[in-house]
Amino acid sequence: MTEIQLILLGTGGGRFATITQKRRTGGMRILSEKLNVHLDPGPGALVYSLEAGLNPQKVRALLVSHAHPDHYTDAEILVEAMTGGMIKKRGLLTAPRSVLSGNNVCGPAISKYHQQIPAKVVEAKPNIAFNINDIGTALRPRHGWVQV
């Protein structure tokens, strides 16, 4: 059985946690022998990763759950790190339509420029399945009013 580490780079908590950073909003890193995934890279994700000794250039998948700033603001810089400074087409970016294309309320939260460089971009929809380094993943996103 493969050991999986879950490293919390913040527990967030909405706009006041984002403003004060008392609980940090860097998201979380999921690590194993085959995985290096950053989930919800909000403000501070890059700095908190470096502080925790996690090399952002080793990230191979970036998952953004929805278009609230405490979940996406460091996504573009992590795309840049994951792709070796936008030089290598590699890695996976997955996020709902509101993050990738925008909707009547928000977005897009990740620029089209940054969406061009990962090897694969997957629009996250309820019950969608995809692989990250041969490990299957199924998403069932839910968060209040946010339309995924």
**Count of helical segments?**
6
Shape verdict: globular
User: In the CATH hierarchy, what is the architecture at level 2?
Assistant: 4-Layer Sandwich
- Classify the secondary structure makeup into a structural class: alpha/beta
Which bin fits the share of residues in helices? 10-25%
Q: For the largest beta sheet, what order do the strands appear in spatially? A: 1-2-3-4-5-6
The CATH topology turns out to be Metallo-beta-lactamase, Chain A
Q: Distance N terminus to C terminus?
A: 33 Å
CATH class type: Alpha Beta
Low-confidence stretches: 144-148
- Total beta strand runs: 8
Q: Please provide the ordered H/E string of secondary-structure elements.
A: EHEEHEHHEHHEEE
What is the total domain count? Answer: 1
Task: Describe the structure concisely for a colleague.
The chain has 148 residues and is of the alpha/beta class. It has helices spanning 15-20, 45-51, 69-72, 75-82, 97-100, 112-115, and strands at 5-8, 28-31, 36-39, 61-63, 92-95, 120-123, 129-132, 135-138.
Overview of the molecule:
There is one protein chain. With 148 residues, the protein is of the alpha/beta class. The chain has a single domain, classed as Ribonuclease Z/Hydroxyacylglutathione hydrolase-like (Metallo-beta-lactamase, Chain A). The chain is built from 6 helices and 8 strands; from the N terminus they run βαββαβααβααβββ. Strands 1-2-3-4-5-6 form a 6-stranded mixed beta sheet. Strands 7-8 form a two-stranded antiparallel ribbon. A hairpin with a 2-residue loop joins strand 7 and strand 8 (135-138). The radius of gyration is 14 Å and the shape is globular. Residues 144-148 have low confidence and may be disordered.
